[in-house]
Write a structure and sequence with these properties.
This protein is of the alpha+beta class and 225 residues long. It is built from 5 helices and 8 strands.
Length: 225
């Protein structure tokens, strides 16, 4: 947690840039995107006409040809902002989703999570929740950010529900914020602060305990109860 004096001056220096490291959890690993090694599983879970809906609110996609998808992965794997991670299911060792740390401002200690795409196998699972917990923990505890942002199209009700469930606070709507795929995007802004993280962390860890799930993997109690 960062100290602030009575006048509002922050007493610490800049945050650290996120790195190309593997972040391990109980159920998933977050691995820097490897456009070659991860392509097959990601194409099977995200590509083709049957997965068009995954890309409805994304700036890219959908991808109907594998060659186009692989070229997309190559472009996305290169930059450090956004820095894209593959979400790998540890039980199957199979890539199941993507998420990025982006709009990185170390001086102000502000960072955003975005470019989140989950395959149908990852959606609404403890693995998906743990991936978001691992990124938040990395951002606050290892890198020293004060503000962690989540933004989405106001039409994307599922993303807004996810942000609230994960402990982000709604801060408002930026009207006519972007033009995506030739259409207007009003953007809903959410954020989590470093001062809020300890309580959020306790709740994540309580929920992620193996004892919170029955033999079929169903939760016994909800996150943020």
């Amino acid at each position: 947690m960062n100290a602030t004096n009575p006048a509002g001056a922050v007493l610490e220096g800049p945050a650290t840039l996120p790195g190309r490291i593997t972040i391990e959890g109980l159920y998933v690993s977050l691995v820097p995107l490897d456009a070659v090694r991860h392509a097959q599983a990601l194409w099977e879970g995200m590509g083709g006409g049957e997965n068009e809906s995954l890309w409805r609110y994304m700036g890219d996609g959908p991808f109907l040809q594998r060659e186009t998808f692989e070229a997309h992965l190559e472009r996305k794997a290169a930059p450090d902002d956004p820095l894209l991670y593959t979400i790998v299911n540890r039980a199957s060792d199979r890539p199941a989703g993507l998420a990025a740390l982006m709009r990185i401002k170390p001086r102000h200690r502000v960072i955003e999570v975005g470019n989140i795409v989950y395959t149908s196998a990852l959606q609404r699972t403890r693995e998906a929740t743990e991936a978001m917990y691992l990124l938040a923990r990395y951002v606050f505890e290892d890198l020293g950010y004060r503000r962690y942002e989540w933004k989405c199209n106001t039409l994307n009700e599922a993303s807004q529900r996810a942000a609230r469930r994960l402990g982000f606070s709604f801060e408002g709507i930026f009207r006519q914020h972007m033009i995506i795929k030739g259409r207007n995007r009003d953007t809903a802004w959410f954020a989590m602060l470093d001062s809020e993280w300890p309580a959020r962390k306790r709740e994540f860890e309580r929920w992620l305990e193996p004892s919170n799930f029955d033999e079929d993997g169903r939760q016994r109690t909800a996150l943020g109860r």
